[in-house]
Each structure stands twice: as C-alpha cells, then as structure tokens.
Design goal:
GO terms for molecular function: hydrolase activity, acting on ester bonds. This is SGNH/GDSL hydrolase family protein. This protein is α/β, with parallel strands linked by helices. The chain has one domain: SGNH hydrolase (Rossmann fold, 3-Layer(aba) Sandwich), CATH 3.40.50. It is 50% helix and 9% strand. The chain has a 5-stranded parallel β-sheet, with helices on both faces. Helix 7 (180-190) packs across helix 8, helix 7 (180-190) packs across helix 9 (238-256) and helix 8 (206-221) crosses helix 9 (238-256).
C-alpha cells in the first residue's frame, strides 16, 4: 500500500513538474522575461512601421517556416495595421479579432514616437490605450508583447527613450517586450553598411523589417534565428541575412539577461 501511494505521489509530482515546465505564462513576470509555451497564433497590431515590405507578419511567417519543425505547420500570423495609427485606434480591432479566433499572443505597437511624444496628451493616450488593450488581451487568454520601435535615423538618441517607455508600460501591464529598437541601434553600430531605413529615414527598409522579424522570432520562441532563410522574393544576400539574424539573437539575449 505504501509503495502504491509513493508511486502515485511520484507520478503526480512528475505531471505537475511537466506542467510547470511547459505551462504558458500569461502575465510576464518582468518585461525582460523569456516567453514560454508554443506561441503559435499571433496577432500584430501596428501601423506603417509594421506593414512596410509586405508586412512584418509575412516576414516572420516565412522565417518560422524555415526554422521550426514541419515548416511551422499550425502556426499563423495576422497583421492588423492602420496607416499613421496610434495604438488606441486598434482597440475596436482587438475586440473584433478576439471574436474570430483565440490568439496565443497579441503584439502591440504604438505610433513611432507616441510613447515619448512631446505632447503629453499623446503619451497619456498611449499609456491608457496600452493598459486597456493589455487587459482585454489577458482576459481573452492572450499574452501581450510590445513592439519596441526604433529611433529615426537622424535622431539616434531616441533609442533609449523608446526602450525605457516600452519597458515601463510592459512592467505596468504584465507584458513582454520585443527589443526591435535596440537591435536597430546595435546593427547600425556593427554593420553601418546595412541600411535599415526607407528613404524617409523613418520607415524600415526590407533589411529593417527582416531584422524586426528576426527579433520577434527570437523573442517568441527562445531560439536563434541564425540560419533562417533570406526574405522571400528579395535579393538580400545570405551574408546580410546572417548578420541581421545574429544581431537580433544577441540583442534579445542581452535584453533578457537584465
């Protein structure tokens, strides 16, 4: 009897341990925490920073198909964008998309400078919107990942201000952070020959979008994007892709070690 009880307790302990290891942590313990779970069904709410170059979700999907088992079968990525949109404009979209599908992860991207705008009402609108949308997402069982945007090409000093703003709102709302802006800064430092910007110095070039996709891959799956395919239907060289993948992986690792 004692042996049976001991075996039963051991089995229960193993099951619970397995659940702890593989459980989905809905509320991030910190903005720099590593994500767990499968994170297969992703909705990305953003603006032109997201939809340039055939949309971030497409580039992320293509990258995952080359790196995840079975060509990432069962994984899906939807981009919901509004040109020049502020984060709060997406609240109705978030509510509607939640009626269509259960999302493992919801990605929230504010307007490029919205979190650090010189206008206090813009900053307050971003904060209020993020808190409300994170609550909606969490109530629906979705994790929240903030898309840390990058500095304008002529204003590199914006990098740290944006990084801090996204870390603060993630801390307040139980969200994770994809440190895309930090990866942009690091790439420009290491590989200035790779142009991450569109001609306006604000929107991303294809290389910029691919770098962002690589950061999201590393953030969502705790796996290096190094070795992934180059962007589909592009002339990006494998060497350039590998440099961007390496920057993304190293940036995410460094950010999550804080």
């Amino acid at each position: 009897m004692k042996l049976r009880l001991r075996a039963s307790l051991l089995t229960t302990t193993l099951i619970l341990s397995s659940q702890v290891v593989y459980a989905d942590t809905l509320i991030a313990p910190s903005p720099t925490a590593r994500m767990d779970g499968g994170n297969k069904v992703i909705a990305i709410y953003g603006n032109s920073y997201t939809h340039y170059n055939n949309n971030l979700n497409t580039r992320l999907r293509d990258l995952t198909r080359s790196l995840l088992p079975n060509n990432a079968e069962g994984y899906s990525y939807r981009g919901i964008t509004i040109s020049s949109g502020e984060l709060g404009w997406h609240e109705p979209n978030l509510r509607f998309q939640n009626t269509l599908k259960s999302w493992d992860v919801v990605v929230l991207q504010g307007n490029s400078m919205e979190p650090i705008s010189k206008k206090s009402n813009s900053r307050e609108y971003f904060q209020t919107s993020a808190k409300k949308m994170a609550e909606i997402a969490h109530d629906a069982g979705s994790k929240v990942v903030y898309f840390m945007t990058w500095a304008q090409k002529s204003h590199p000093e914006q990098t740290q201000a944006l990084a801090k703003a996204y870390m603060v709102i993630a801390e307040e709302t139980g969200g994770y952070v994809a440190p895309v802006g930090l990866a942009f800064a690091q790439s420009m430092k290491q590989y200035p020959e790779i142009n991450l910007y569109h001609s306006d110095g604000k929107h991303p070039s294809l290389a910029g979008t691919y770098l962002a996709a690589s950061v999201f891959f590393a953030t969502l799956y705790n796996q290096s994007p190094i070795g992934g395919e180059t962007p589909a239907d592009s002339d990006m060289s494998p060497e350039t892709a590998r440099k961007l993948q390496t920057v993304a992986w190293e940036t995410v690792q460094s950010y999550q070690s804080k």
